[in-house]
Sequence to fold (461 residues):
Amino acid sequence: MSIAQNTETTAKLRCISCGATPDSAGQDFRCTACGDLLEFFFPGWTLDQLDGAKPCHHTDPSVLKDLWLKRRTSRDALDQSGVWRFRELLPQIPNLEEHAITLREGNTPLYRLPRCARATGVENLHAKHQGMNPTASFKDTGMTFAASSAHQGGFKWVACASTGNTSASMASYAARGNMHSLVLIPDGKISWGKLSQSLDYGALTCQLRTDFDGCVHILNELVRQKPVYLLNSVNPYRIEGQKTAAIELMEQLAWEPPDHIIVPGGNLGNSSAIGKALLEMRERKLISRLPKLSIIQAQGANPFYRCVHEFGGKKLEPMTADTLATAIRIGNPASWKKALRVLQATGGEVEQVTEVEIAAAKAEIGADGIGCEPASAVTLAGLKKLRRSGFVKAGESVVLILTGHLLKDPDFTIKFHRGDLFGGTAGETEAAQARYLQRAPVVLDANLGAVIAALDTAEKS
Ligand code: F0G
Fold:
C-alpha cells in the first residue's frame, strides 16, 4: 500500500492566543509574536465543506474508515503503525518514506474492566491501554511523529525534560533514527524503570537537582542557544501524533463515541491531543457527537484543577507539585490553555484525587488483570468521584485512558502491597481503607505443608 501523502491534509501552524499563522516554528515552538503555544490546523478541510465539493477519496468519512481498516492487513511499516495508519488526519512530513521512524506504535488494546465496572456501578467501562505501546507509555504515538519531523529537519540532537516516560520514548525513537538524545530529568523523582530505558537506548541522561518544571526551564533556554530539537509536548507534532489514540479508540468502538473519556492530567499535552482529535473527527463527520473529556489530577499536583475550580479558567497559578504518581508531578503545565479549550468544548470535568485513592485505584485495575502505573490510575479514582457527584451516570459508557504500563514503576506497587507506601506520611490513616486490596508476598519455609496452609488461609479470607 502506497505511503504517498494526500494533498488534502496541508496543515498550517497557528498561535492558540493571538492567532498568528507563522510558516514555520522556532526552536522553542512558541509564537514569536506573543510567546504562546502553536497548534496545527487544516484550512483545506473547511474549504472542502465551503466548496460544497463532492466527497473525494480523502474527505468521505466512510472511505477513510475503510482505508484505515484495510491498512491493518498491509505489510507496509507505516500502514502497520497505529499512528501513521491515520495519516489523512495528520500534517504532512515531506519525504516521509525517508524520514519516518516507527516502531509499530499505537494499535493498543481496549479492555473491559469487569471488576472496576462493578465497583463503580458503571457497567460499560473500558480501558484503552496506551501502556501497551513499544516503550510502554502513551508517549510513543506523539514521539513517532515528532521524531520523524526532527529527522526530516536534519537535526543531530533531540532533547526533552521529562518525568520519565517522554524521555524513555524519545531516547528510543532517537536511537532508531540515528539521532542523539539529551534527557533532563528531576534527580531522584523518576522511577527506575523509566530511567533504565533512557540509559539503555543510549541517551545523554542528566539528572538535575530540581523538579520537572525546573528541567523545562533549563531546556527552553538550551534550545534557544543550541541546534537541538525540542521534543516536549509544546511541540505541536507531538500533539498531532497523540491524536491518533482517540481516532483508534473510535475505530475500536465502531465509531460510536462513549459518553465519557477520562484522562490523567500532568503537563496536559495528552488531554489537549485527545480533545483536538475528537473535535476534528466531529468536524470531518467521522463521529456524530462528542464524548465528555474529563481530566484528573493528583491532589498534590493540581494546578489545572485549581485553575478551573478556583479561578474559573482565567489563570493558572504554578505550584510546587508533590505526588507519588511521579509521572504527573508537574506544577506548571505548559498546555493548560489547550486543555481548557477542549474541556469546555466537550463539556468535561476536572477532578483531583488523593494519594491513597490513586494507590487503591491502581490495585483495583491490577485486580482486573490489566495493571497500569500510578499516574494512569487517577482515571479510575477520578471516575469514582465523578460517579459520586452524579457527573457520570450508571447507564453511561466510560473509557479510561491508561497511559503507562504497570512495570514502569514496580517500586510503588511493591510498597503498596507490603503496606509501606504511606508509612510516616499524611496518608497513613486514610491508607487503612485500602488495606483490603493489599496482597503482600508471603515468605514460607520450603515445605508443602506451609504452602497448603497459606492456600487454606487465602481461601477463607
Ligand atoms: N500518565 C503518564 C504515565 C505520564 O507519563 C504522563 C506525563 C501523564 C500521564 C500526563 O500526561 O503530561 O500529557 O498531561 N508524563 C510526561 C513525561 C510529562 O515527561 O513523561 P500529560
Observations:
- Residues 137, 162-166, 233, 264-271, 327-328, 373, 375-376, 403-404 surround F0G (CB under 6 Å).
- The chain has a mean pLDDT of 94.
- The first helix runs from residue 43 to 50.
- The first strand starts at residue 12 and ends at 15.
